[in-house]
Description:
- The complex is a heterodimer of chains A (552) and B (49).
- In chain A, helix 2 packs parallel to helix 8, helix 6 runs antiparallel to helix 7 and helix 7 (190-220) packs antiparallel against helix 8 (233-247).
- Chain A has helices at residues 5-12, 29-52, 57-81, 85-115, 121-136, 161-186, 190-220, 233-247, 256-272, 278-354, 364-393, 405-423, 442-459, 490-495, 506-509, 517-527, and strands at 144-148, 155-158, 400-404, 426-431, 437-441, 465-473, 476-483, 531-535, 543-550.
- Chain A is 65% helix and 10% strand.
- Chain B has one domain (3-48).
- Chain B has helices at 3-29, 39-48; one strand at residues 35-36.
- The longest helix of chain B is centred in the first third of the chain and has 27 residues, at 3-29.
- Chain B is elongated.
- Chain B starts with a helix and ends with a helix.
- The A-B interface holds A 3, 5, 8, 11, 57, 85-87, 89-90, 93-94, 97, 101, 118-119, 121, 124-125, 128, 131-132, 135-136, 138-139, 141, 145-152, 157 and B 1-2, 4-5, 8-9, 12, 15-16, 19-20, 22-28, 31, 33-39, 41-42, 45-46, 49.
Amino acid sequence: MERSILEYIQMCEWDPARFLILSDNVFDPLIYYSHLVPLIVSLAIGFLVFLKSPKSLAARWLSVAIFLITLWLFFDLILWATEKPIYTMFFWSVINLIEPMIYAGMLFFVYAFVDGKSISFKHQAIVFGLLLPTTLLAFTSWNLSYYDLTNCWREAVEGPLIYYNYIIEATLVLWIIVFGMNRFQERSNAYEKRKIILIISSSAFFLFSLSIGNIVGSIQVEWDNAGQYGLFGIPIFTAALAYLIVKYHAFNIKLLAAQMLIVALGFLTASLLFLEDIGLIRLVIYITLIFFSVLGYLLIRSVKREVEQRERIERLAEELQETNKRQEVLFHFIGHEVKGFLTKDANAFAALADGDFGALPEPLKPLVGQALMQARNGERSVTDILTASNLKKGTVAYTKEPLDLKMLTAEAIEKARAVAQQKGLALSFVADESSYQIVGDRGQIVDHVLRNLIDNAINYTLSGSVAVSLKKENGKIIFAVKDSGVGITEEDKKRLFTEGGHGKDSQKVNAHSTGYGLYIAKNIILAHGGTIRAESEGAGKGSTFIIEFSAV
Amino acid sequence: MEKKSEILLVVFAIIVLASITATFYKYIVLENVTFETDEEAFQAALLEE
């Protein structure tokens, strides 16, 4: 009597799977354990590696390989559970398709990790060329010949393509090993050599863990428990790879091991609840112990190192703070002394220039004028540095009073006019008839803000003009100094208002620049509740400094 | 990554997706599965169980 396929299937009495993976067809809970533990742990590691370093090429390829492995594990679990031949044929075909791709992903990862760059186009094309037959023939009988109903084992019979897949996988593993050996010989640095050995051996063992089921299956013919033990290597070697990545600072992951341990601990402990056989529980505990011993040891060692490093940094920071304090005291003492000498010099030269000691001989007049200017420049530089230091310490006291900003600006411009004329620059000031009243410290605003910005504009403009303007906008007073000078590059903008922050070529244009002027101006403006910013289209295109004050 | 490498990667990914789609269509949509069995061996296997 000829039976129909449906009758054969009914006679096999397979349990219908719930949620694709839950059924009595999975004869041993170890199958769940050997698949779900690596799946969850690998997925957690893959996501962490990718999320922490999404731009790293090595991280991307490792994530791809891990993602494919989790798919492989999930589909394999479906094969163990499903009673539907159509699911068996589909998921089995896809497993055969993605398995060599995992090996290729690991090869790309190893290249990216060791060389720090992508595999060459030629090699990439070779790898994809090798994978092409597997990909194109996945749905044909070359991949899966038929569904075998003989023994009710719910098995597909693989076609000749499977041998091609094994050859590709062996080739890719060999490629990884040969690549590692080549790079090992090329590098002379012992640290680099160790890094290569560790990453290559971990990657090879990682792939071996995946293949062991196939190897055991091929030898034993029957797919039983023995092949499942290899899968436990996946989370261990995934963890080892992640650890190596952290150790060699390829990705910025500090808490990876801790996060992974927590995920795995929860899962492993919970899984014990589903095991009834005491022998299996023992086995699970052994595996769990090995897993946690390895990861725990690595984690403890890394935490210990980190704690030691932190303690050392804290000690050094304390010493540095003490040294800074002592240096600051010395620096203030020297600063004040130098300022005193320069002030005395400037007064003496001023008295000579004014003729307090009688008329100067003509040849001496320019020399005394020069010396007076130099002494005043020096005095101003030292004052700037001392003011910056006081601002940083927070020891600057502001005496605030109502100020007419328009009048103060006009005065500052008049003081700067002589220098501008000497350089042949057009210095202008525009303001309408509005009131420009603010509340502030007159000395600080005039000396360190208005004069500073106007002097800077003159100093950094070799030809052209400096235009100062005042206007009111939305209840704010806008003070702007626009020049046709050297301009500011994007790079210089970042350090413009920082302590001692020179532009890259600023001292070529203004040899007296201390780098503290704008830092002081910014701090004073902030203390007055205002804002300051600089605009420039780039080098040689002039610049505009804009201050916004709150109007009274 | 070079531009041509990226293009190659995208092309390969498309081929893989197309292959998976074809496999899905054959087995899940068309249910085109070839079955093999041997009546005697089948009976023997049932008796063994």
